[in-house]
Amino acid sequence: MSDGYAERVHAELAEELPDDDLGEDLADFLDSYERGSRPGPDEEEFLATVREALERIERGRGGRPGIGPGRR
């Protein structure tokens, strides 16, 4: 990640989800995430949180959030 805004969003996400190793690329994480691999009923909330962070980063870069596997 090269821009400061993306780094801030990623840092906020790491604070919100301290037990999860999301890597540097949230789009890659979402694309490779296997549904059912997260224990408990909070999987949808977890994925929504990651998607929201990715969309914030993409909006901050002036891009349009992509639609791909694992994204709404």
Characterization of the model:
With 72 residues, the chain is mainly alpha-helical. It has one domain. It contains 3 helices and no strands. It has helices spanning 4-16, 26-32, 43-60. Helix 1 runs antiparallel to helix 3 (43-60). The radius of gyration is 12 Å and the shape is globular. The two termini are 23 Å apart.
In a nutshell, what does this entry contain?
This protein has 72 residues and is mostly helical. Helices cover 53% and strands 0% of the residues.
Number of domains: 1
Largest sheet: none
Q: Which regions are unreliable across 5 or more consecutive residues at pLDDT < 50?
A: 67-72
* Mean model confidence by pLDDT: 84
What class do helices, strands and sheet pairing give?
A: mainly alpha
> What's the helix-strand series?
HHH
Percent strand equals: under 5%
Q: What is the number of E strands?
A: 0
Distance between the termini: 23 Å
DSSP helix count? Answer: 3
Q: In angstroms, what is the radius of gyration?
A: 12 Å
Secondary structure: helix percent = 40-55%
Coarse morphology: globular
